[in-house]
Design brief:
367 residues, elongated, 11 helices, 4-stranded mixed β-sheet, 15 strands, single chain, 5-stranded mixed β-sheet, 40% helix, alpha+beta
Length: 367
């Protein structure tokens, strides 16, 4: 993370000065001493886009630019890349890797050489990885003392803010770069509303909008528009912990916080005391909470224990399908915690309200 600020300007400047030629990808690579090694290009859904084998220490992959977010695998090494019109050069060779114990070992390594799209997205993804690791650490420390948990939550928040600065710089300064659309779709759409994303979309060039990544972003924005502020919240019907069906619409007439969470989500559990405080204060004034868990069937016991342990005494439902929960897709939830605040008519009035902001918004609706 310490290198984030120093490298941000460099990567943004490099990535924004590309010239593009044709609507096909062209990947050439060297792999001296690895003849016969399989080279594969795989889409996000794990389907194979293209493949070949190393011959005379070299390989090449070319094809139409119909898919852009992909994984390039050579032998036992792989890298996530964005396919684009410019030639991409890669190198596969043995490299020295040092373990945490200081032991050095030789293993195959794949290097993407001076590719601006790759370098930019790698910086964003590496930053996001710190956030994910910290979130997992918070979850694993759920039974620890308050002080370490509080420190982890503060670290998580700091990392989040740094990542937002990086993402914002990429999107605003690289509007003719596929990485900009990918950052909006993969990261910013988790937190921002349709109204907040619309100017960023409008700022992208027609070339980016019409690309595969651009089309994916457009579809995401259409989903966000359906669950944006001012829209009537789509109804939800899912099983409660005791197996009965419960619908979101059954709470019509109340101010409702639709809360997507999971027992394994550290930041969700860190926010739970605040939600409980607001619930206890306003439940007699017509405030309620409709919790949708993204736990899996194998995590059912953990879900129920989390409800009991943290005294989450409001409505709970779950398909127990994890991220495959159809409701998560309906609300375009790709990261948790994610919340939608509904007025008494079931209209979405705010999203992702946390901390003091939650009570501030609820107090307005429960007068």
């Amino acid at each position: 993370m310490r290198k984030l600020k120093a490298t941000l300007g460099l990567f943004v400047a490099m990535a924004c000065t590309q010239a593009y030629a044709q609507n096909s990808y062209n990947i050439t690579g060297t792999a001296e001493g690895f003849d016969g090694t399989v080279v594969k290009l795989t889409a996000e859904d794990k389907t194979t886009i293209d493949s070949t084998v190393v011959a005379n220490g070299k390989f090449q992959l070319t094809g139409p630019l119909t898919v852009q977010v992909a994984s390039l695998t050579v032998g036992t090494a792989s890298e996530n890349i964005i396919l684009h019109e410019n030639p991409m050069n890669v190198e596969y060779k043995m490299a020295t890797v040092t373990s945490r114990t200081g032991e050095a070992t030789e293993r195959p390594s794949l290097t993407i050489i001076n590719d601006k799209e790759y370098e930019l997205m790698k910086e964003v993804n590496d930053s996001q990885l710190f956030e994910i690791i910290t979130m997992m650490a918070i979850a694993l420390s759920s039974d620890s003392t308050a002080a370490p948990r509080d420190s982890m939550v503060m670290l998580y928040t700091t990392i989040q803010e740094r990542n937002k600065v990086l993402q914002d710089s990429v999107v605003r300064n690289c509007n003719d770069n596929y990485a900009a659309a990918n950052v909006i779709n993969q990261f910013m759409a988790r937190e921002k509303t349709y109204a907040e994303l619309k100017p960023l979309w409008d700022n992208l060039t027609p070339r980016v909008k019409e690309s595969g990544i651009g089309k994916k972003l457009e579809a995401t924005m259409q989903k966000l528009a359906a669950v944006g502020v001012g829209s009537i919240a789509p109804d939800i019907t899912l099983p409660t912990p005791d197996g009965k069906e419960l619908s979101l619409s059954s709470l019509r007439g109340k101010v409702v916080l639709l809360d997507f969470w999971a027992s394994w989500c550290g930041p969700c559990l860190a926010e739970a005391p605040n939600v409980k405080k607001v619930y206890d204060k306003y439940k007699d004034k017509g405030f309620d909470v409709f919790g949708v868990s993204l736990d899996k069937e194998s995590q059912r016991d953990a879900w129920l224990k989390a409800i009991e342990k943290h005294q989450l005494t409001w409505h709970h439902v779950s398909s127990l399908k994890g991220w495959e929960c159809p409701v998560a897709g309906l609300y375009n939830v790709t990261a948790i915690p994610a919340t939608f605040l509904l007025d008494r008519e079931g209209r979405i009035v705010a999203t992702n309200c946390r901390g003091e902001k939650l009570e501030e918004e609820v107090s307005k609706l429960c007068k």
